[in-house]
Amino acid sequence: MTTSDRTVAATDGQPVNRCCLPADSLFEEGTVRLNEPPDSDAESLLARLLAGAYDKPFVIDDGAVRRLYFDLAFVQSEMTIKRPYALNFAYTRKMMACLLFIPRPRHIVIVGLGGGSLIRFCHRHVARARITAVEIDPQVIAFGDLFELPRQDGRFALVQADAVEYFARTRDRADVVLLDGCDRNGIAPAFCDAGFYRNIRACLKERGVLVINLVGPAAACRSHLQVIRDVFAGPLIVQNVIEGGTKVAYAFNDPKFLPDWDGIERLARQLAKRHDLDFPALAGKLQRSGLTRATARRCNRRPV
After folding, report:
1. CA distance 276 to 72
2. With a threshold of 0.85, does the pTM exceed it?
3. Exposure string (b/e) for 270-294, b if CB count within 10 Å is 16 or more?
4. Are 203 and 174 in contact (CB under 8 A)?
5. With contact defined as beta carbons under 8 Å apart, do 65 and 219 qualify?
6. Most CB contacts within 10 A, which of 40, 64, 95, 189?
7. What percent of the chain stands above pLDDT 90?
8. 116 with 144: CB under 8 angstroms?
9. Could you give the CA distance from residue 230 to residue 295 in angstroms, rounded to a whole number?
10. Which of the residue ranges 2-11, 111-120, 195-204 would you say has the lowest mean pLDDT?
11. Within 13 Å, how many C-alpha atoms sit on residue 170's CB side?
12. Cβ-contact 79, 98 below 8 angstroms
C-alpha cells in the first residue's frame, strides 16, 4: 500500500479532538463540528463558513440529525441519529434499487464515503456482502466516528485512494459499484473519462452493475451519460431524482441483459419484507424509466 492508497480506520482508533461551535451563527440549530484544534479562532472559522471560504468538510449536529457539508449551500450527507441505517435521501434509495437486479451481491464497492449512508445500509441489510469503500479525502474519513461507520473486518474495508487510480490498479472483482463521488459542484469531473469507466467495467463481474449518482450542472451530467453509453455494451437505465435535478443511472456489464420486469416485481415484494425500503415502489419507477433509446440501439455493439 502507498500513502495515497491504504486501508484506514476512520479515526485510527484514537479519541477525536475537534472544534465545536454553536450553529446559531450560521442560522442553524445545534453544533458545528470541524476538524480543527479545539482552541481555534471561532470568529474566523464562522466567518469563513458563512462566506463559503472554508475549504474542508464540516458537520452540523442538532441532536436529532447529523449532516455533512462541503459548504452551507448543499447538504452532502445526512444521518438520523436514532435511525442511523435509514436512507434519508431519495437518490440513495434509488441507488440501492440495484438489489432488484443483483439481490445477493458478494462484493460491493462504494466510491465516495460522505456520511456513510450507503455503507451502513449495505452492512446491515446485505449481510453476506463484502463492502469496500473508496474515499480520497482524509478530512471526510476523519468524521467517520460521528457517522457510525462499521468496524473494519473481513466484511468492510475503507480505502483512502483516488477512485481513478484505484480502478486502474485493482484486480478485485465486484458485483456492484456504487459511484457517489462528488465535490462542491457535483460529480467529480475526473470521472468523466472513458478510461475510468473502462476500468470499472473490467472490475465488474460478468453480470455486474454500475450505479452512478449524477448530480451537478445539466451539461456535466449529459457528458457523463454519453461516456457511459459509449463504454458499456449493456443497457442503461436513467432515473430522475426530485432533489435538484439529480439523476441515478444503472449501467449493466452484460450486453445481453434485459430486465425481467415481472420477475423484478416479485423480487421487490420479497426484498421489502427483509429490508427497510419500499422496493415495489422502486421497481415501478425503474420500469417506467425503462431503457434509453440510445442504449437500445447500442445493446449489441461492442464497447470502445
Report:
1. 30
2. yes
3. ebbeebebebbebbeebeebebbee
4. yes
5. no
6. 95
7. 74
8. yes
9. 9
10. 2-11
11. 24
12. no
C-alpha distance across the termini of the chain, in Å:
31
SS3 state of residue 299: coil
At residue 183 the predicted structure's pLDDT band, cuts being 50, 70 and 90, is confident
The arithmetic mean of pLDDT across residues 132-160, rounded, is 95
For the packed helices 261-274 and 279-289, what is the interaxial angle rounded to 10 degrees? 150
Residue 104 pLDDT level (bands cut at 50, 70, 90):
very high
Please provide residue 211's backbone torsions phi and psi, each rounded to the nearest 5 degrees: -120, 125
Residue carrying the nine cell digits 440513495: 92
Could you say which DSSP state residue 155 is in? S
Residue 97 corresponds to which cell in the numbers above?
A: 434499487
Q: How many other C-beta atoms lie within 10 A of the C-beta of residue 238?
A: 21
Q: How far is residue 118's CA from residue 110's CA, in Å, rounded to a whole number?
A: 8
> How far apart, in Å, are the Cα atoms of 188 and each of 47, 55, 217, 227?
27, 16, 12, 14
